[in-house]
Amino acid sequence: MQLNVGRPRRKTAVILEDGPVLTAMDRRVEPRSRIRHIILLGLGVTVLLATAAAGYMRFGLSRTLVVPSERVVISTVKTGMFVEYIPATASVAPRNTAYLDAVEGGQVAEVMVEEGAHVERGQPLVRLKNTNLQLEVLGRQAQLMEQLDRLNSTLLSFEQARLAHERDLIDAGAQIKQISERLRRRELLRASGAVSESEIAELSNDLERYRQLETSMREAQAVDRKFQSQQVAQLRDTIGKTRADLDVAAETLQGLLVKAPIAGQLTALDAHLGEAKTAGQRIGQIDEADAYKA
User: Which structural domain, as residue segments, surrounds residue 284?
Assistant: First the structure.
């Protein structure tokens, strides 16, 4: 058994004064000089300051601005209101909106416009049909005509009664005048004895009777006139109320015709032929087309 024993190698080390220990494999690196960097930095700062000074001398002191000639507008300066527009986010809606509701219930009989059309105020839009309401209006019209006929008949009877009273009064007055004349003549013949006392008494009684009859006729005429005026007033009041009810019914009947309350655009319309609508049900909507709000 052999053993090979090598010799240890010697390494040479260089020891610098006041420095680290360097071996044969180390290389000394000389430090770069900082003077060059300082000089370059100074030159850059000098150029920047020179440029800033030149710009200040050119634009800062003279206070001028060079713009293209096509961008220059020359006009007379006037005093006015300065308007500044500030952008804002908002929802735009028509200023006025009118809703169409069925005043009276009924069945849609006619649709005169289409949704989206521009309509004028008072323009017919939808016509409804309500048979019960129409029959009610016809019944009130018939009732009014009946009351008018009754009033005319009453006025005619009152006029005939007045003429009869006037005729009776004329007859009574004529009888009183005739009997008075006969009695006057008989009074003139009494002294001669040509006329009996009984005849004069009979004429006096007839004269008194006709005078009382005339008074009674005038009282009856006054009572009839008062009663007639009251009855006519009642009939006229009843007719006035019936006319008012008929006007209300007619207005209600007119409510079956839906009209545009304002001018604008018909933005919504829910009405189809044959469709039933209840009272107060929403039919459509009209928006004013030339005015908006945010």
Answer: 92-130+256-294
The DSSP call for residue 122 is: T
Q: Using the 8-state DSSP alphabet, how is residue 98 labeled?
A: E
Q: Are residues 126 and 137 in the same domain?
A: no
Convert the pLDDT of each residue in 133-149 to its tens digit.
888 878 877 887 887 78
Is residue 221 one of the residues assigned to a domain?
yes
What pLDDT digit, counting tens, does each position of 177-222 carry? 888 888 888 887 777 777 777 887 888 888 888 888 888 888 888 8
DSSP H or E stretch at residue 231: helix 197-254
pLDDT digits (tens, 9 = 90+) for 250-283: 777 777 888 888 888 888 888 888 888 888 888 8
Mean pLDDT within 280-289:
87
Separation CA 196–CA 203 (nearest Å): 11
Q: Are residues 167 and 232 in the same domain?
A: yes
Euclidean distance between CA atoms 129 and 258, whole angstroms:
11
Identify the residue whose tokens are 């009855």: 231
Mean pLDDT value of segment 37-44: 81
Q: Please give the backbone phi and psi of residue 291, each rounded to the nearest 5 degrees, phi first.
A: -145, 135
DSSP annotation string for 27-73: ---PPPPSHHHHHHHHHHHHHHHHHHHHHIIIIITTT-----GGG--
The reply to whether 125 and 136 lie within a common domain is no
Q: How far apart are CA 137 and CA 248, in angstroms?
A: 9
